[in-house]
Amino acid sequence: MRKSYRIKKNTEFQEVFKHGKSFANRQFVVYVLEKENRKHFRIGLSVSKKLGNAVKRNQIKRYIRQVFLELKEDIPPGYDYIIIARKPAAEMNYHEVKKSLIHVLKIAHVLKKS
C-alpha cells in the first residue's frame, strides 16, 4: 500500500479521533472521518504492545493493510479510517481478520457492496 494511503501524523490521528465516528466489534474499533475532495481513502493503524511482540503486531498490521487493498474498489474515496486492533485480533488468521473487518465496515455503512 502506497504512502499516500496512510495516515502517519499525530495531528491527523487526533483529528479523526475528535471529529470522526467510531464503530466497533470484538476485534477492531474503526474511526471514520469524511474528507472532501480526496481521490482515495487513507488508513491509520494502531496495534498496542499488549497484543504481542513486534512480529505479531506487524503481522496484524500487514493483514489489515491487505484487507483494505483487496477491498479497495468497495471502499468509497474521500474517507480517513483509523483501525485499532483489540486483544482477540492477536489470535486470528488472515481470513478471520478479513471477515471481522468486513463486518465492522458494514456496521459503519462504508462498503459499497455487500
From TrEMBL:
Molecular-function GO terms, alphabetical: 3'-tRNA processing endoribonuclease activity; ribonuclease P activity; tRNA binding
EC number: 3.1.26.5
Superkingdom: Bacteria
UniProt-listed Gene3D superfamilies: 3.30.230.10
Keyword Nucleotidyltransferase among UniProt keywords: no
Record-linked SUPFAM superfamilies: Ribosomal protein S5 domain 2-like
UniProt keyword tRNA-binding, yes or no: no
The entry's keywords: Endonuclease, Hydrolase, Nuclease, RNA-binding, tRNA processing
Pfam families named among the record's database cross-references: Ribonuclease_P
Catalytic activity: Endonucleolytic cleavage of RNA, removing 5'-extranucleotides from tRNA precursor
A GO biological-process term: tRNA 5'-leader removal
InterPro entries tied to this protein: Ribosomal_Su5_D2-typ_SF, Ribsml_uS5_D2-typ_fold_subgr, RNase_P, RNase_P_CS
GO cellular component labels: ribonuclease P complex
Subunit structure comment from the entry: Consists of a catalytic RNA component (M1 or rnpB) and a protein subunit.
Its biological purpose: RNaseP catalyzes the removal of the 5'-leader sequence from pre-tRNA to produce the mature 5'-terminus. It can also cleave other RNA substrates such as 4.5S RNA. The protein component plays an auxiliary but essential role in vivo by binding to the 5'-leader sequence and broadening the substrate specificity of the ribozyme.
Family per similarity comment: Belongs to the RnpA family.
Protein name, UniProt field: Ribonuclease P protein component
Biological source species: Heyndrickxia coagulans (Weizmannia coagulans)
